[in-house]
């Protein structure tokens, strides 16, 4: 019988060393689960946690802690984590071996509830499959389309979580899921060349990339001092698309925290035309996974296709850096052309990548009375 695992706090340095060792061995760990993300989320308290088998560190995660007003109790949140052996394939351990000591540790430090996002993919759909479903017009949601691949081990994790007392919001398909997106769009890079990738783009994407180049759109890397230029276009995007923008200080904090951890962790891209910034993005990289994390585009100059040019630059750089995945992040579940979110998946489908469904976010009440009271308060707000 395996020895029980112990969860205890580890230093950011220990956590980062663990992440680097795991990603060097091919593991896929979210940028939301590296120590620097705690520096980005300054409004939360935080801790790096380690799972120990004796003296050996065998799992790790970043937990963010949000305090309830006037009470020394916390909501604990592990976005897109933790990094443990979810299916048992690596260690043969049952999921309870990992999650029971986690719950006990969080309760002991004052958490009343915990939310986590298992980094477990359960279904994927190729671009051609989704294009055919959209053209056919019979599918309204991703779930209406038979997946190209289904991970039975990943689906079994959901069953085990329910058995262990975890719960999940109903998958209504509205918006992007929970706090982090349940459905994402990714472009596989492993074993491919630039020509392979460009050939995989649809005709419109290829034409727009050429149009941007012919028009003189130049995509360049920026630094900390260029963040105000990014933010100006980002605010313009927020007004146009109807969302509340983050302040410039948030992106400055992100830049400082991530570059201090690893100079290649975050890259700023600026697409200029005749000296004007028409599009700007940030790319985050951990190991062999690159994420398009924030994007913005001006209302001006859209005819010279700066957004296509900047995406192509990020894809090429990710490939050159040895990444296996270029992750375009969240999409909604909709395949309905009349839905206001349909344009997002339509844009990303043009890259010829694939849509993936993760297991979604799961919750456990550690102090049920307080948890229900807080949930009721938030619902009333």
From TrEMBL:
The keyword Acyltransferase applies. PROSITE patterns: FEMABX (PS51191). Keywords: Acyltransferase, Cell shape, Cell wall biogenesis/degradation, Peptidoglycan synthesis, Transferase. Transmembrane segments: none annotated. InterPro entries: Acyl_CoA_acyltransferase, FEMABX, PG_Glycine_Bridge_Synth. Belongs to the FemABX family. This is Lipid II:glycine glycyltransferase FemX.
